[in-house]
Amino acid sequence: MPSTILAIESSCDDTSAAIMHDAKMLSLGVSGQKIHAQYGGVVPELASRAHQQQIVPVVDFVLKEAGLTPKDIDAVAFTQGPGLLGSLLVGTSFAKGFALAQNIPLISVNHMEAHILAHMIDDPKPSFPFICLTVSGGHTQIVLVNSPSDMIVLGETLDDAAGEAFDKTGKMMGLPYPAGPVIDRLAKEGQRLYSFPIPKIDGYNFSFSGLKTAIRNFLIKHIKEDADFIENHKEDISRSVQDIIIDILLIKLEKAARAYNIDQLAIAGGVSANSGLRARLEALCQENGWKSFIPAFRYCTDNAGMIAMAGHYKFENNAFVDQSITPQPRMKI
Description:
Elements: E1 4-9, E2 15-21, E3 24-31, H1 44-66, E4 75-81, H2 85-102, E5 106-110, H3 111-117, E6 130-135, E7 140-147, E8 150-156, H4 162-173, H5 180-187, H6 209-225, H7 229-259, E9 264-268, H8 275-288, E10 291-293, H9 304-316
Parallel strand pairs: 1-4, 4-5, 6-9, 9-10
Antiparallel strand pairs: 1-2, 2-3, 6-7, 7-8
Helix pairs in contact: 1-2, 3-9, 4-6, 4-7, 5-7, 7-8
C-alpha cells in the first residue's frame, strides 16, 4: 500500500525531517548545531533547546520542498532511541502532536536499525542476509541483518565507540570539533609512521578505551621531547590513528563474514563517511570476491531519511504505536 511518511530525527545534535512516498525520498532537511564546537562535544541541554527552535522550520521546509501539506501525510515516524533524552523528547513530542492533530498513525524507530536500513534508500541495495558494521560517535556494532525486522547484534563496543576515539584524539591534538572529518582530511596527506596496540577482545566485540589511553601517552611522551610535535606531525599522527581504528573495525568484520558465510558487507553510521574506512572496506571485499555497500554521504550521518526508510517497512506491517509512547535513551536493537 503506497504511503507518504513524515520522519523526524532528533537523537543528538542534528534536527532532521524527511518525507518519503512509497519508499522514494521526496525531501530531506537537516539543521546542525554549531554551538557545541566551543565546548569540544555535544552539551545535552543546549542540544534539546536547539531542537525546540529548529524542528518546526525543518518540518515546514521538507513539506514545502515536497509540495505537500500536513493533510497529505499518512503516518509520522520518529526516533524513539537510543540518544540523548532531552533531544529525543523534542522529536517524540512533536511527532505525537503532529499525528494527533492529523489523526494519523505513529511509528517508533530504533536509531541504529535506521542507520542500517539507510542502505535500502538508493541503489545498489544489499539483499538479505548481509552483515553491517555500524560506527558512530556513540555506537560500534556488527549486526547480522536477516530482514528489516530481524537484526542480530553479533558484537559491540564494551566501552567507547570508534567515533569517540576519533573525536577524543582530535581534542588531544587541538583539532576543532567534530574531529573525525578533520583527521580524515589530514590522514590523506600523512603516512602511517606510528604504531598503536590492537585490543585483544574475544568474539566480535570492540574496545577503544585502551587505544585512547595509548594515544594520549604517545602524545605526552613526544610533546615532552618536542613542544611542536603535534603541529609538525599532525598528518602522520592522523594517518596512524585512523589506520589503527580501521584495522580494529575490519578485523572483526572480516571474522564475522567468514564465520557466518556472508558475502555482502555494509557500513553505516557517521564514521562510515570516513574516506579511509570506505576505501579499505571496498578493498577487503574486492580481495575476497565479496560485495560492499556504503550509503550516500547524506545518509551516513544522523538524518531523517533513514528514519523514513525504517518507517516505510513498519508501515507495511502496520507496526504502529499509540500516544503513550516515550523515548528510550538506551534502546537496543
